[in-house]
Design a protein that fits this description.
This is YfbM family protein. The protein is an alpha+beta fold. It has one domain. Helix content is about 45%, strand content about 15%. It has a 5-stranded antiparallel beta sheet, sandwiched between helices. Helix 1 crosses helix 2 and helix 4 crosses helix 7.
Length: about 170
Amino acid sequence: MGMIHCEYARLDAAELARAVAEPAWAERRLDALATEWTELDLPPHEARYLSIGTTWGVLHGLLRADAALPVDVIQGGAALELPVEPRFGPARYLEPAEVRRAADVLGATPFEEIAGRYDVAIVCDDDVCPEPSEHADDEPDRLRVPYEELTAFFAASAEAGDGVVVLLA
């Protein structure tokens, strides 16, 4: 089994409603967005798909430590049924209002504040990383780009009024 990646897809309100109602369509749409993202290599504020790769577990720990973040942007939201479930639990989706709330907090929280919370004890648990010694003290530096990309992606999603699908695959 390979490493688990966290991926996001922006869906407008009509697409999100259809994705919830039609799992097979949702899977095809998510696949198309992933392919588009790979082929076009768009910046996060223009892309309709984004991957933060394997940094999701550590970012999740840091973001959970922020009491101000009203929405779990990595493992939160409602379950989205797909014909083939991602390897690490069901796909999830955040409604446009949840995306807006998350974008507001992410946009108001500079990376330095997130990095200042870094402590293996809060970012590492048995589910995410059973071996805390694998996480170096300089790990916050490798989180800057994924955090800033996630922030830009959520800002653009919120601006457009889109919902966001979250996949751990």
